[in-house]
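User: What would this chain look like folded?
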Amino acid sequence: TVSVVGGVIGVGLYYMIFVGGDVVIWSGFTGVVLGWIISPIMGLLVSIGIYWLIRRYILTRPKGLRGIEKMEKYFLYALIVTVIITGISRAGNDVGNAVGVLAGFEDLPPLTILLLIGGIGIGFGLYVLGRRVLKNVGKNIVEMRPSDGFAIQTAVMIIMLLATILGFPISGTVVLIFAIIGNSMIKRLRFNKKTVKEIMYSWFLTIPVTLLVSMGICALLFWANPV
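Assistant: Here's the prediction, encoded as structure tokens.
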């Protein structure tokens, strides 16, 4: 999400500086940035609220270790459902970002075909490259039980669904990280600050890097094919 927006802004800035004309719709960009700021905060707060409800009304009921293990098993089944729904909403948001830059062009395949191709690409990327991210988020930040995972993923699911329905491109990864932090806060657990910092630094650096790269590619294209 962030890399796509950074790349698009880079192209727009190149045209503004070197070609002429205000091609960036700054009001739309401002709305996207506000979504990036609000969505992680909402992820943190919603995760805290959901886990508080779970702890208050569900986790206090089982008796003994066996009862707790049985309850956590039910949460594991519920977690699988929320992960599937979250995956659907994230795919809709991420594929929309990847294919969105093509939506305004003519002489291209129908948008449905483009979305299908983008979905296949995301699925392939998850299979080939997603394992490291999965391990980093799932194991290297904080230890979680199924009830924790359910609270976290439900928060992400709600926010991603709302953002996708409303058409806002947001970073599901950042929402997830803040939801994990929120869960750790309400449980008063320490989380791996080093891993969180590394993820956040990479997120913040993505915008300027993709912006500069897209401007550089535009410069090369104009140099190779001067108008």
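Helices lie at 2-19, 26-57, 64-100, 111-139, 146-166, 172-187, 193-224. If you want, I can go into more detail on any region.
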